[in-house]
Amino acid sequence: MIVNQIIKQLLSWAPQGAAWEKDNIGLQVGSRNRKLRNIFLTLELTEKSLDEAIKNDCNFIFTHHPLIFKPLKNLDLDRNNKNLLIQKLIKNNITLFSAHTNLDFTKDGVSFQLAKTLGLKNIRFLKNEESNQVKIVVFVPEDYKATVVDAIFNAGGGIIGEYDKCSFNSSGVGTFRGSSFSNPVIGQKNNFEKVNEIRLEVLVNNWEINSVVTAIKLSHPYEEPAIDIYPLKNKNVNYGFGAIGELPNKLSEKLFLNHVSQKLKTKALKYCTEKTKTISSVAVCGGSCAEMWNDAITAGADAFVTADIKYHTFQDAENKILFIDAGHFETEVVVLNKVKQKLESFIKKQKADIKVFKYKGSTNPIKFYIK
Known about the structure:
By secondary structure, the protein is an alpha/beta fold. It has helices at about 5-15, 45-55, 80-90, 100-105, 110-115, 145-155, 210-220, 255-265, 295-300, 310-315, 330, 335-350; strands at about 25-30, 40, 60-65, 95-100, 120-130, 135-140, 170-175, 190-205, 225-230, 235-250, 270, 280-290, 305, 320-325, 355-360.
């Protein structure tokens, strides 16, 4: 097995096109084509986590936070710790790959894993992404419908929630006349032709438009297939921000705070209180999502768990929702368990002798002083 097979598997879950456009995700350092030995998972790369990866003979490292986020100005090895990590990766022939906001925004990604860690039920997106899909319509001769639709599905089209291979077909009559320079598959050049055709409609994510259109052109019998692309305002059920769910049993404010502290293994929470002080519906968002507190209230949440909340944001939310800052590291590191599970399942299916290790330490730079 080579590294690129693992990268493709990760991207089939959290595609690059789903990421924030300014995010530097994907391959950070190294090669896609080297033979894979073992895999190492860590929220971000540090000297200690890299050393542990090397100790476990791992030549592929997955991180959530990209090592290279802004363009590098130099590779000065005397003044920049990040550059030293890059040097060490290259010296040890290790490939570094990151899935950041694409893993935040995907179903079963960071926020879904945070919700599951807190024991929530009926988990769904707090706010779905919207206006990032199109409807592609193509007209196909009846005998070629199966070939074209299969090509579309294989290119990533036709996925709606938990369903794939979704399409709509309607019958009609297509007309055309080819010029003297044409080479029609059906009929003759310079003749007006009528053909029984299928109008084939599929939903496609914006980042998959090119691959789907290419698949159509390669599988379609016509020289010039008729393809229409309609932008949509729909909410995307497969991608979104944060998550919301319900506790199995209502908890008092104090018991819920204790619950969050225990589940996320943190001794310190920052929070502001809300009026009812009975918690049933809970919104979450791994990492820095403080600006979504109004979305949490609109969705009917009694509490919102996230991180990096500013003083004045707490002030605005006070007495409106139980607003909890549980830490950036603590609310995101939980996703590594899911990454490990998915990769181990894939490796098992491939019958490969490859181990997946998760960093045993903490890459969290924040320490707490509790008197």
